[in-house]
């Protein structure tokens, strides 16, 4: 006998939770489609050579390699590896199918990715990413940068997990700001931003001490200017635009970033995103080597500790390793497994009943009772009502207990009396109310009830 | 520069095909839910020890092993392996979560599985399986065996890929038949059935020669009886029931199989499955070691060469390796990747447009043009219409070409004239018709058009 268990670091759900998860996936997907994104799926494994072009260090150490039984026996180097994100597969996909795709290429992709993370509560080795990207050929208007926060907004409205704020920044603005302080070395900028990133954990004093200390050696006034700058959060659209205005004219790159952010904010207004749901946040940097323009993070207002639940930004060139074509893009990613885990921990998951709406109980073992239920089940299913029939006769109390455990809301009981009357006794396990419904009215009754 | 390519044996789709695939997945899923099945998902990898309990030989040789970078460097034996079907993970899942599940446990699972198949056209190393199973605790009424063909029927009606016939047989009936011929050794039965399975390929004469030949040594009359028996296909419900009746009274196990098949056929009638869509076929056996009662295969009437597109059956005990509980079940599986591939080859895929319904073209580079489109896009999206806006200005002809390539049906054009009039010029790329629609009527117009 073998103890049945899953590998460490995976999230396996019971059916009721899986339904909730599925509902989140469905809502994300339909929102992506609402904004004109098309689906793609890529294989779980890529050729090792293809996958590991770009990444060294950390990422490579977390890669899972895949080998067939035969290759393993022969001691070969693994030819395949599991994808660790959806960005590298997207780059490979776009480069491979370049001629067959229509540009700008708007794709969504919702699949699991794999990382050999250190074992730790809340860290996953297998997790869903829900990504969208818009890829241009040679160029891509900055107007697309404004479309993505509108998608983020629509997605989290649809998920109904509480109020949130989309944090906006721009890497050109960041670089320009540092240029204006005569800190134009991009490596130094990256190191300073890494320290800024620790503000929440270490506190302002400790960070300032580091930046004025030996390793950085920045003047205290410069550090104070940086701290004031990255501390900025806008509280209204008007204030955001004013702040951008006030920074203008110090550096060409800074001005470019300002212009882009302004356009994004103006467009968000036209797209109907309320000003309460987004803000400028000049501390957002997101991996200095990849993003080149607008960057996004998204925080739950009442649970900032969860961290960013949707992030992304603008990049210069998607697939330089695979094609000579220049493919600029902008994208975002939702790490749904981690989000689901944290929502569950915080008790924020929307309650979810079963997708099954009615259980037809079995009153006795006579064939005519089962036959009656079969006929009734067909009528309900044809009307679009998800219906389960009981075939294993047992005490009625046990059947109700089953429905309750499975999260099914209605139990329909038809005994001899009901059959003679042409009625159905319907119990609503949510309200504990019991109703006598005419069989001919049952479909309408249930359709109304489940839609309410 | 690295040549972008996928590993051999995977099916990667372009967006338009992916949408068709997604539509098939959606219809299968909603049908499964219509019959009261609940979703589960399991990790792509299982612990090697857990996965490889049962299977030796063929299956084991096709397994993909998974190793993190660290484990690979240390030369360890892989601790993880990719699932090669959804049945072993289901067994592990049910055993692991036994106390938390409600029985009979009705689950559906639609995920990809992995097999190191020999490289060959039409064979896949990564492919979707769409499975449902009903698992009882200690017992499971044979009535559930009749529910599954009703699900198969509803699924393939929903997929709209042509007429089909669900082939029914019963392993008890098969065994009982052989018993009645004094061929009661189950290994010998298996060997005979394996020869019978070759009927289509080798022809009746060759198979009969083998069975009467040295290795089997069966009398010619016995072989003729077997051939007559396995050649039976019912052409109506009445004839199926008559044939079952005529076999009765020769062997206890045969009689049990007959009673079960009769019940299945009677219930299919009550569930509204027309007699034209199922048939008895006494040659269906399906892996003699696993199934114990009813077995199913499904053939497309006009394309029998594709082989069974949905198969399954009744088994005694799901998870004997993981739990002492007796868990009888009945299940079916659709290999969707293979089915999709074959439908595509045969030109049988239902045509599928983009999920995006409207493209809002951009007439010029003035900000007010983009602004107008943004406002219009929000109105359309709020009304549930999947809408894409063009931000990269280019020739109108190019924008139409883009919509055509992406499979988007409607292109909306709003120039100065239209703006002054409060109208939208709408082109239907399906019919090539161009219509002038009042902006206030646009939502209703499009909703009607896309639903039609």
From TrEMBL, chains A, B:
Record EC number: 6.1.1.21
InterPro entries named in the record: aa-tRNA-synth_II, aa-tRNA-synth_II/BPL/LPL, Anticodon-bd, Anticodon-bd_dom_sf, His-tRNA-ligase, HisRS-like_core, HisRS/HisZ, HisRS_anticodon
Phylogenetic placement of the source organism: Bacteria, Pseudomonadati, Pseudomonadota, Gammaproteobacteria, Lysobacterales
UniProt cross-references to CDD domains, sorted A to Z: HisRS-like_core, HisRS_anticodon
Keyword Aminoacyl-tRNA synthetase: yes
Subunit description: Homodimer.
Entry's localization field: Cytoplasm
Domain Aminoacyl-transfer RNA synthetases class-II family profile: from-to ranges: 22-351
GO function terms (MF aspect): histidine-tRNA ligase activity
One family name in Pfam for this protein: HGTP_anticodon
Keyword list, A-Z: Aminoacyl-tRNA synthetase, ATP-binding, Cytoplasm, Ligase, Nucleotide-binding, Protein biosynthesis
Classification via HAMAP family: His_tRNA_synth (MF_00127)
Name recorded for this polypeptide: Histidine--tRNA ligase
Enzyme class: ligase
Reactions catalysed, as given in the entry: tRNA(His) + L-histidine + ATP = L-histidyl-tRNA(His) + AMP + diphosphate + H(+)
UniProt similarity note: Belongs to the class-II aminoacyl-tRNA synthetase family.
């Amino acid at each position: 006998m073998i103890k049945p268990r899953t590998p460490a670091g995976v999230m396996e759900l019971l059916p009721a939770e899986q339904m909730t998860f599925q509902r989140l996936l469905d809502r994300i997907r339909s929102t992506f489609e609402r904004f004109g994104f098309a689906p793609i799926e890529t294989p779980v494994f890529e050729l090792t050579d293809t996958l590991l072009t770009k990444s060294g260090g950390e990422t490579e150490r977390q890669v899972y390699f895949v080998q067939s039984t035969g290759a393993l026996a022969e001691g070969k180097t693994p030819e395949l590896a599991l994808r660790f994100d959806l960005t590298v597969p997207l780059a490979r996909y776009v480069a491979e199918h370049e001629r067959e795709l229509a540009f700008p290429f708007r794709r969504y992709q919702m699949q699991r990715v794999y990382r050999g993370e250190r074992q730790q509560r809340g860290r996953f080795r297998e997790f869903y990413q829900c990504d969208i990207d818009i890829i241009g050929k040679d160029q891509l208007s900055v107007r697309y940068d404004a479309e993505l926060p509108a998608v983020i907004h629509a997605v989290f409205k649809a998920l109904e997990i509480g109020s949130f704020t989309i944090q906006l920044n721009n890497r050109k603005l960041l670089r320009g700001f540092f240029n204006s302080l005569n800190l134009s070395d991009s490596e130094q900028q990256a190191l300073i931003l890494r320290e800024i990133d620790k503000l929440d954990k270490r506190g302002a004093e400790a960070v300032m001490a580091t930046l004025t200390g030996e390793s950085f050696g920045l003047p205290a006034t410069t550090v104070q200017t940086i701290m004031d700058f990255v501390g900025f959060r806008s509280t209204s659209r008007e204030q955001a635009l004013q702040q951008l205005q006030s920074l203008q004219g110090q550096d060409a790159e800074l001005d470019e970033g300002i212009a882009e952010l302004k356009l994004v904010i103006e467009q968000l207004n036209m797209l109907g995103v309320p000003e309460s749901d987004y803000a400028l946040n000049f501390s957002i940097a997101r991996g200095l080597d990849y993003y080149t323009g607008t960057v996004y993070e998204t925080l739950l207002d009442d649970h900032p500790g969860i961290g960013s639940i949707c992030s992304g930004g603008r990049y210069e060139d998607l697939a330089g390793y695979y094609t000579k074509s220049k493919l600029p893009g902008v994208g975002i990613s939702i790490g749904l497994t981690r989000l689901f885990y944290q929502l569950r921990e915080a008790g924020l998951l929307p309650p979810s009943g079963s997708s099954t709406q009615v259980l037809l109980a079995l009153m006795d073992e006579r064939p005519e009772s089962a036959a009656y239920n079969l006929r009734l089940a067909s009528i309900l299913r044809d009307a679009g009502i998800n219906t389960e029939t009981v075939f294993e006769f047992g005490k009625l109390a046990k059947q109700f207990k089953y429905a309750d455990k499975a999260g099914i809301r209605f139990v329909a009981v038809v005994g001899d009396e009901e059959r003679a009357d042409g009625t159905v006794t319907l119990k609503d396990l949510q309200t504990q109310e019991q109703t006598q419904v005419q069989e001919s009215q049952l479909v309408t009754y249930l359709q109304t009830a489940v839609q309410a």
